[in-house]
Amino acid sequence: MKKLTTSINEAEAILIFAGAGMSADSGLTTYQDKEGFYRDYPLYKKLNKNYVSMMSCQELLADSQFAWGYFAHQYKLYSEALPHEGYKKLLELCLSKEDYFVVTTNVDGLFKKAGFSANCVHEVHGSIHNLQCSIPCHRNIWLTEGINVEIDYSTMKVLDTLPCCPKCGFVSRPNICMYGDTDDSYVWEAADENTKRFKEWRKKNQHKKMLIFEIGVGAEGLKRHSRMYREVFSDATLVRVNPEKESIEYGDMINIQTGVKDAFVPL
Ligand SMILES: [Zn+2]
User: Fold this and answer.
1) Is the whole model's pTM more than 0.90, yes or no?
2) Top CATH class, 2-264
3) Exposure pattern of 38-61 as b/e (b: 16+ CB <10 Å)?
4) Cα(143) to centroid(ligand 1), Å
5) 238-260 per-position pLDDT tens digit
6) 138 CA distance to ligand 1 centroid (A)?
7) CA of 164 to the centre of ligand 1 (A)
8) Segment holding 211, helix H or strand E
9) Ligand 1: distance of its center to the CA of 168 in Å?
10) Domain ranges of the chain
């Protein structure tokens, strides 16, 4: 803990890599294990659907009322979720430093809702708060805001007319990088703006004393990023926050084996 306090006090800038575990304390299930998914959606078990099949662009094209049953429910959950205290503490910490940046695979929008600047948050998989055309006939996105469709929970199908593309009238979809997506089917350009911002941020802060937080990350890809970026900065300390025990630890990495709220609220 002393090492952590020293690293926090000495840091000039903060870089955060956050995965699904970041939002678990806000009541959003991580769906890492199949059973967690089926606890929330028992009907999908009967229908032999899993998280991967529901987050697939093929499912959307096969039966859009059914696919939107899942998206609309997720949108409702994410819209109603409130950022927990850990988000607020983390933001206070970021604002007390010269600069910060967040890279997250989460599509729930909770960093922005907690007050993190949109220019400093890179949602690498997109966001449920944005829509795109399913074809897509054009490469723009628009806000999901105001969508209020009724779901028949016995079939998980949307009963109302689905939100459509304002240009061609075809069904829209969340601007989230889904399983089976290609660069053609996913409108990646919005997220790409923040890829550029992140690149500039790294260059600007390359020689600052950097504190890198890897928070609630299960996916190996994002873990690899946090390790890789530790080498990019001339003086960086990596802090991993995860309730799961990690089998591989790296050098002087600080490991906090707890949930996010418990890790940040006492700071
Ligand atoms: Zn369209």
Assistant:
1) yes
2) alpha beta
3) beebeebeeeebbbebbbbbebbe
4) 15
5) 999 988 876 566 667 888 888 88
6) 6
7) 8
8) strand 209-215
9) 4
10) 2-264
